[in-house]
Amino acid sequence: MSESNKSIEILAVNISKEKGTVKEAVPEISLTSIGVDGDAHRGNWHRMVSMLGQESVEKFEHKAGRKINFGEFAENITTKGVLLYETHPLDRFISKDIELEVTQIGKECHGDSCAIYREVGNCVMPKEGIFVRVLKGGKMKAGDTLEYRPKIQKVHVITLSDRAFRGEYEDRSGPAIEEKLKVFFTLSQREFHIERTVIPDDPEALEALIAHSVNSDFDAIITTGGTGVGERDITPETVQPMLDKELTGIMEMIRVKYGEKKPQALLSRSIAGTINKTQVYSLPGSVRACNEYLDEILKTYHHLMLMVWGIDAH
Q: Quick one: 162 and 142 in the same domain?
């Protein structure tokens, strides 16, 4: 699923020397690896640059009954063309010279302790402003344009089954996982791309496919099958050595939760972890188990995604 990219126009660029104060529009800003040169909020963190859409400002102007100047809500960049608060972390804004990555939507409002709140009477930034980090720096001025490129969630679903690979058995768990993911990404308003592959219970084939998926920048790899104790159940021992970090808590909790009612669930050897920036989950082969496991895994999916990309969302 993908939509055509949109463009935003830069209406103003703004700077303040102190935090918690309104910013003043300037002819041009210089974006560096730590933010806006000369701005109080620059630094090696995930909120180095703030952006606010004129669409949000105009809504507040209507409520306030007065004109709001560029920078009054302490935004570094005032834009028009995209509802910024509907973007997501890891979406990007790109031009020939500049690349910005969304890191946070909104922020905590400090109320009366904030000079902006005291001066303007309210602040739209906590709900509709966004923060970005600079991936590629350069000069920016009013009148410039940036292309908005949503982050597309790429997931590879891999079914391990000798019988399904030979065509003797219909793969049901792979399609079930795909359907679950489609609902999840649609409800979270994320663009997505899902691939499905069926392979035999072959450690070399699985290792090669995982390596290819990681190198192809997939955000997640979900395997189904091969987590039991049979002679051909080779998924955990193939996946585990490939992980950079193993996430034991997810699978331990799932086994205990469902094992209380169905003790056989405790025999699953499912594992989870990360390889570079790719989340990896190895699930059992039954449709029911896949749905149960994903109910728990998807609760932390977005947060883990931010963590592997170095975004502090605590």
A: no
